[in-house]
Amino acid sequence: MKLGLFIFFISFFCTGTEINKDPVYASMIKAHLMQGNETEAIKVIPYMKNVNYEYSSHLTLFSLAGNMQANKLVSALLEKGINLEDLNNRAAINSACINSNLSLVQLVIDNGLVADYLITDAGEMPSCMDFSLSSGNDKLFELIMVYGAGQSRDKFCTDSLALKISKIEFQAIFKKACKLRL
């Protein structure tokens, strides 16, 4: 058995063929996060060739970090060049909204998230905008409106959105962000 294992390692590590180690690194990061050790997870990031690697069916490290509210890991992934326009990342930003992780939403916005992703559904997940309205999360709604209206006023400051807003506090935020009257 030991000889077989030795030959296996020699064949993979000494043949000159490059092996994709990202699955191993992704598993290590996930294990560190599950143990609550975000600092150790971050130390693995520099070894990855593809930080957009899907470690499980349509789940990226960004999704995992967002769901576990590991904002320092998200920062490290952003520095490494994670793709913010990927469909999975759009789902991750929606997960951050659903978990009311405002600091993560702000972090991703600060790093160039396209405002449209805040109003676009991600598969079976509601958009951040829809979630903020249905949950009554005024801080999330304000974050989305101020950022979204600043980047894409014609998509955020619409009559159809104004009609969806029933909460008085949200109407004031909408008016302020869009500088309109309801």
Can you walk me through this structure?
- The protein is an all-alpha fold and 182 residues long.
- It has 2 domains: 16-83, no CATH class; 93-182.
- The protein is built from 11 helices and 2 strands.
- The chain has helices at 2-13, 22-34, 38-44, 61-67, 71-80, 87-98, 102-110, 128-135, 138-156, 159-164, 168-178, and strands at 54-56, 59-60.
- InterPro entries: Ankyrin_rpt-contain_sf (IPR036770).
Can you summarize this structure?
This is Ankyrin repeat protein. The chain is mainly α and 182 residues long.
Provide keyphrases for this structure.
182 residues; mainly alpha; 2 domains; elongated
Q: Strands, helices and their partners?
A:
Elements: H1 2-13, H2 22-34, H3 38-44, E1 54-56, E2 59-60, H4 61-67, H5 71-80, H6 87-98, H7 102-110, H8 128-135, H9 138-156, H10 159-164, H11 168-178
Antiparallel strand pairs: 1-2
| Helical segment count | 11
Note the run of SSEs as H and E: HHHEEHHHHHHHH
How many domains comprise the coordinates? 2
Biggest sheet architecture: 2 strands, antiparallel
Low-confidence stretches: 1-8
Q: Would you report the number of β strands?
A: 2
Structural class: mainly alpha
Q: What is the overall pLDDT average?
A: 79
**Span of the ends, CA to CA:** 75 Å
Rg, alpha carbons: 21 Å
How would you write the strand order of the largest sheet? 1-2
Amount of helix: 55-70%
Question: Could you tell me the strand content as a percent range?
Answer: under 5%
Shape: elongated
Protein name: Ankyrin repeat protein
InterPro entries: Ankyrin_rpt-contain_sf (IPR036770)
